[in-house]
């Protein structure tokens, strides 16, 4: 499919590592450069990819480096942050001056459509469809998580529509072990397990009746591959203001149901001494568990229709996959020594 130059940030992260793994498998002729924060991270990537990836040392604050790599690449993937505006502004400026066809894919997250930590303001039946509800998604309030970065990304393509295509990938709860190179576990379920073991009991935010959609990390990666294929084959795909892609499958479990499964898995392994689940306020979750209550105390329900228009179809994100992955995730965390009781 041609020798394209691809630049990726976040390559040692959970999502970025999976994307890089799948890119190398699907597009072996690509010339890939990854931004890494340390020499050690660079060596990790280069060794595990058998030198198929060139690394450059820096961070999202290395703005001139990001500008240079954006200018010289055909495909740019930011998987490092869904909130770093300074780097996005530099990417936007560089893309606005491009004179060759270029694709930019930005990571976001379903937190952008989360409702509220206040039960009185819950909208439990609201499901955002990334095709039918695109105008509503593009009109979300600036106070929503990730929204400023989303808005900035959505404005890029119109600065240079002849040469630039953009897309935003906005996953809900991601599960599964990544095929990446460093961080291999996700956030919501693993964090819940890790902190439950530390504290000795678990929690729900209020009654735990909130819901997030879910997706396997593998299916997140295949959506990136689907978009890249459309781009390099010069086929039409939703981009710019219409290029907003959710990723999910199955039904949306309540966090009470998920927490109960996590607690049962931990208890069966003798990692906790009881199955206690306390109903806590967002403030108590922060004070007792040092965790952002938004992850479990809001509703963020999505319908991934835009990806299906590409021919993308999730294969590992069903309900049985999600529930089975709780055990698999806890097995992984235990083997990595990440499930250790606290001293309190």
TrEMBL record:
<dbReference type="InterPro" id="IPR008030">
    <property type="entry name" value="NmrA-like"/>
</dbReference>
<dbReference type="GO" id="GO:0004029">
    <property type="term" value="F:aldehyde dehydrogenase (NAD+) activity"/>
</dbReference>
<dbReference type="GO" id="GO:0005737">
    <property type="term" value="C:cytoplasm"/>
</dbReference>
<dbReference type="InterPro" id="IPR051783">
    <property type="entry name" value="NAD(P)-dependent_oxidoreduct"/>
</dbReference>
<dbReference type="Pfam" id="PF05368">
    <property type="entry name" value="NmrA"/>
</dbReference>
<feature type="domain" description="NmrA-like">
    <location>
        <begin position="3"/>
        <end position="93"/>
    </location>
</feature>
<dbReference type="InterPro" id="IPR036291">
    <property type="entry name" value="NAD(P)-bd_dom_sf"/>
</dbReference>
<protein>
    <recommendedName>
        <fullName>NmrA-like domain-containing protein</fullName>
    </recommendedName>
</protein>
């Amino acid at each position: 499919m041609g020798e394209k130059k691809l630049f990726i940030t976040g390559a040692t992260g959970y999502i970025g590592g999976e994307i890089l793994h799948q890119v190398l498998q699907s597009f072996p002729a690509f010339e890939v450069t990854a931004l890494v924060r340390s020499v050690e991270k660079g060596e990790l990537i280069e060794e595990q990819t058998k030198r198929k990836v060139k690394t450059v040392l820096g961070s999202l604050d290395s703005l001139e480096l990001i500008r240079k790599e954006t200018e010289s690449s055909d495909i740019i993937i930011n998987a490092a942050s869904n909130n770093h505006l300074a780097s996005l502004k530099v990417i936007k400026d560089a893309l606005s001056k491009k004179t060759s066809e270029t694709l930019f894919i930005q990571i976001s997250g379903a937190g952008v459509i989360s409702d509220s930590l206040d039960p009185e303001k819950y909208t439990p039946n609201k499901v955002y469809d990334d095709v039918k509800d695109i105008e509503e998604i593009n009109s979300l309030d600036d106070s929503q998580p990730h929204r400023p970065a989303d808005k900035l990304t959505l404005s890029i393509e119109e600065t240079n529509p002849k040469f630039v295509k953009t897309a935003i990938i906005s996953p809900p709860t991601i599960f599964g072990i990544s095929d990446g190179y460093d961080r291999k576990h996700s956030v919501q379920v693993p964090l819940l397990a890790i902190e439950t073991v530390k504290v000795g009991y678990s929690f729900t935010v209020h009654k735990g009746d909130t819901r997030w959609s879910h997706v396997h990390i593998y299916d997140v990666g295949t959506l990136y591959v689907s978009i890249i294929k459309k781009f390099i084959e010069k086929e039409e795909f939703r981009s710019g203001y219409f290029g907003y892609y959710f990723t999910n499958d199955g039904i949306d479990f309540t966090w009470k149901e998920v927490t109960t499964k996590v607690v049962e898995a931990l208890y069966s392994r003798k990692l906790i001494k009881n199955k206690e689940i306390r109903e806590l306020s967002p403030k108590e979750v922060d004070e007792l568990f040092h965790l952002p209550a938004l992850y479990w105390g809001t509703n963020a329900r999505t319908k991934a229709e835009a990806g299906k228009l590409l021919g993308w179809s999730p294969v590992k994100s069903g309900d049985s996959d999600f529930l089975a992955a709780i055990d698999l995730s806890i097995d992984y965390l235990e083997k990595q020594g990440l499930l250790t009781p606290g001293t309190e």
